[in-house]
Each structure stands twice: as C-alpha cells, then as structure tokens.
Amino acid sequence: MMASPESCPALVLNADFRPLSYFPLSLWPWQETVKAVFLDRVSILSEYDRVVHSPSFSMKLPSVIALKEFIPQERRPAFTRFNVFLRDRFRCQYCGEPSPAPDLTFDHVIPRSRGGRTNWENVVTACQTCNLRKGNRLPHQVHMHPKRTPFQPSTFELQENGRAFPPNYLHQSWRDFLYWDSELEIG
Q: Which residues sit opposite 125 in a β-bridge?
C-alpha cells in the first residue's frame, strides 16, 4: 500500500543545509513543498517513492528540501514557556527530574509577589511537586535553589538543545541532514 501524501512531509533546510529548527523539527506538508518547488524557492535534495499527479504533470514528493535564499535566525529567541523548558532540557531545575512538557510548569525563582519579574533570568522549569513545595517563597527560605542559574539562551543554544530530543518519526532520507549525537561506525 502506498503512503498517502499527508504522510510525506518534507524536511526543510536553510540555504546552509541546516534545519530551520530542530524542536519542533522544520517540516512542510507536501502541498507547501510542491508549491515552493514550482515557485523555484527550494532545491530538492531527496525524494519519497510517492508520486503525485495532475492531468499534465507528475513528480515524486520531495522528502528533503533546501531554501535557495538564506533565512537568518533571530539571535534572541522568544520568551515562551516551551523555550524555557527547552533551555532547561525538560528537567525540573530543583529536583533534576526530566518530564514531558505537559507535566512541567515554570517557576519564578524570586516570586512575583516579592518583586520577581517574568523573564529569562528569573524563570526556571519546575515539576508540579517542586513548584507547589516552593510556593511563593525565596529559594533560601525553603533550601530550593535552581540547579542552573536561569539565563537568556541564544537561538543557537535552543537549537542545540533541541537536537537532543529527536521527533517520534524520522524518515530515512532525513538522517544525513540531522546531526543527532550518534556514534559513527568505524570501518
């Protein structure tokens, strides 16, 4: 049975052949990919076996594409809950335990009720248990200090952290373009 086009997203690489993002992985649905090919905005680097047809045209669906024009990455990532989790590698900064994103919260090291701000330098990833235990107290009052001092990461640092969390699905043709930390065979 042939895969449906919906199950054939393309890995999108910048003009320098690096993924636009690792987490979430930069993927385009097949329709956007085909449109970009026709508008000559991308180069096809790898293809699926799946072919799509129109009355006058047929083509294999691209599995890896590279943009023809380089898109500079923003130096300062957006301050979002998810990016805080990614900076902290999905680990509670108090107990050190990893958790899936839905089970995590973020904590103000200096509570807002005590003048703490909601920014990169005062917010850390916390599990629900530690967040409740700390409450609105200062770290020294409850002997709960973050494992790492909170900081504003660069986009590059978030990308590097994202590489450690590969998506659930990786098409074989993507592996050469994703630099997952894996041991290479010596031969």
A: 106
